[in-house]
# Entry
Amino acid sequence: MIIPGYTPHTKQRDFHESDAMFRVLVGSERSGKTCAGAHEDIKMMFRARARGAGKHAGRGWIIAPTLKLCETAAGKIVKIAEAIQKEAAKKGLRFPIKTRAWNTSPTIEFFDGKFIIECKSAIEPDRIAAETVDFVHLDEYGLMPQIIFEKCRTRLLDYDGRLIVTSTPNGKNHLYQLYLAGQDPSRPNYESWKIYVKDNPIMTDEKIDRLTADMDKSEYNRRIMAEFSDPELTVFYGFDDCMTHPMLLNPLDSGQYVMGLDLAERRDYTAYCIMDRRDFRVVHMERLADRTFFPWRRIKRHIYKAAKFWRCEVIIADATGVGAPVCQDLESWGLNVTPFIFSATSKKQLVADAVVAFNEGVIILPLRGSCEIAEILHTELSQYEARYTPAGNVSYGHRAGNSFHDDMVDCLMLALHGCITGAGQIISHEEFDFDCRDPGEYREEEEYEKLAS
Ligand SMILES: Nc1ncnc2c1ncn2[C@@H]1O[C@H](COP(=O)(O)OP(=O)(O)O)[C@@H](O)[C@H]1O
Ligand SMILES: [Mg+2]
# Structure
């Protein structure tokens, strides 16, 4: 069946014609990745039904970094499905579609519920449950933790399912590895392509000019030239080598624990990191569900319990904006809270400390593969970047847009800050001393300084 309004351009066609188990379509912004992906989703659904979905309840997943991007992809699928429905009706055929729960997690039901396409956000990898699926579409995989791919791949085995990736590059991360696998003739299960915005018939020169107007060179290279590298933006190096020890289940008797706490803005996470100030080892890290689903009351209770359990000497807490009242409450419950205000200057110092800690290898981070948190932290650290304003100022954080998170990095840096500055530490005899000099000596010193300057 011809779907009206879509004539795939050459590279989109190559992508549609391949039957590789893993297909990776990398491209510049507005080159037609999601659009090609959405058409392919529908195609994979019909294929799955031909292979037996229908006997079992057919299921496909579309996963995007955020709910918002999920909705974009879901919207495209519904449009395509409606176009098919119209064409089918002309031939007297039925193609029933129903959509559900649009604003939480969009689900589209086909064939009176016999096949469903669920759209999920990658924000909580835990929610990618152990179901068997007929296909998976990862939209903007470059912005998700690597673990999503691994999780989905095992879900596909039973039904000989297919996985497609549509994404803009994001440095030499896991998407790049997948792209390379697709270029490697010795790995026939993988195929990959690159498409560009100028391949898209609806993108006129004028539209492209508008799209690129405010981009600096590295943004242009990544978002328009679909290049994988942008090393000048990278902030952290060397953290891989610090990921050496799994986290702990219980506090050690000898441990001296400091908590770094990053409180969520609207759609972000609250995250905390507990570090032993003796060896700068991360012993526990957690990220609490999206603010949308988690009221402050519960967040505060959770933090209180964690701080008590780990016997934290001090909590270095983000007290910017919404954080301030939360800090006050935690303090009134008897926790030792040191508020930290994020500003351009204070953040610069936090980042500088972390850069040094990674380079010198004096920090111990969760071992990769030992837990999901380690993967998420790794992704966040590799995506953390410096942004330079035209005035020459620098700001740090995750990449613009709400597809990225840096809550884990922030709480890690706060914990490190607590350990370095010795905040919350009990005063020791070394800090306590009398100055036994004769007042005359001070005067001499002052005069000497005057002379010297
Ligand atoms: N082959 C095509 N023919 C016509 N329009 C297309 C084609 N491919 C993409 N488009 C349109 O181009 C726009 C950008 O496509 P989209 O898939 O959202 O881009 P990307 O995901 O690469 O940023 C959308 O409006 C889409 O419908
Ligand atoms: Mg897209």
Summary: The chain has a mean pLDDT of 86. The radius of gyration is 26 Å. The chain has two domains: 10-231, 240-425.
